[in-house]
Amino acid sequence: MNKLYVIGAGPGDEQLLTGIAKETLSRAQRVLNTREMPLAELMSELKYSEKGGTAVLVSGDCGFFSVAKTILRDFSGFYEIEVLPGISSIQYLSAKLKVPYDDAAKFSLHGRSGFIVPKVAYNKRVFVLTDNTSSVREICSTLYKYGLGHVDVSVGERLSYPDERVVSDKAEVLKDMDFDGLSVMYIENPSATDPQTPLLDKDFIRGDIPMTKEEIRWLSVRKLGIRPGDTVYDVGAGTGSVSVEMARSAYDGFVYAIEAKEDACALVRENASRFGAFNIEIIHGEAPLALDGLPVPDKAFIGGSAGNMDGILAKLTSLNPDIRLVANAITLQTLNQLTEGFEKYGISGTETICVNIAKSRKTGEYDMMVAQNPVYIVSGGR
Length: 382
Hints:
Radius of gyration: 26 Å
Strand content: 15-25%
Mean pLDDT: 91
CATH class of the largest domain: Alpha Beta
């Protein structure tokens, strides 16, 4: 079986190649460079092996969103493969800026659809690899749009080449500047939110809008089983307390808070900003019509329906037949609508629980337990 060497080329300057990489390149019968040929052409070339060995130079880090993964998957039975790592562009920019990267989130947008806002909202430090589709300008514009224009950004462009450029400023400034498509960004958000910190009722701005109480909120979000990258709807968002709670669970995803009342939308916005939950987009409108054009949801919470429960359930299950749903009810009429609706639209594994909570209150020398209204939590779906 002939040898295949996958060599990390680093940012691009030949001087940054490791000693063993240079030695291997000098004695290989054939050298293929991913910077000089399309992926399809590379894969075609690798179908024909050379007795003296083949070396493939791959950009950046062999273990970080690299074509090395595809080569190992497709040719492990055809070649004896050895991977020789190189210096990554993240390592290079980290050294230039004199900042460590051991505790930073690392994210690549090369050929991938990804959303940067949750990464920056919940991590103090983030390194991002850009591409021509997800450019520095677009990323900074997105950060600015969602309230993160104040974060510090450094951009490494053409790293290791003679025309290398490193620029540092606020996202709101860099959104108006152009950079090379394949750049590296370092983003600092000292005010990043810890998504594990519990949210208490007393911390929210409430106004005159009803709010889902903390214990009900915690149980409801837990019943949803939100994964980090999920897209989640909050239908009838109210004050946004559930939206913020869900945004923390979907710390790599996004929450769409649908609310018909303008004053409630303003409260959602205030609370989202207050808790650093920038991965919330507020949709002013009445469900189900307001759901048109939104990304397909993985999970949805129904906190209020304004009499449109049947239409909301019909819309949500049409968008995603496997959606996971949780809804709250405080009246028997709403509970009846939910249980009948879940059955009508084939929502599997439906479960209803009734939560009765009493909290202590000081009365003179005594502590008395004061009961709150019982709440029904209906859940179902995959």
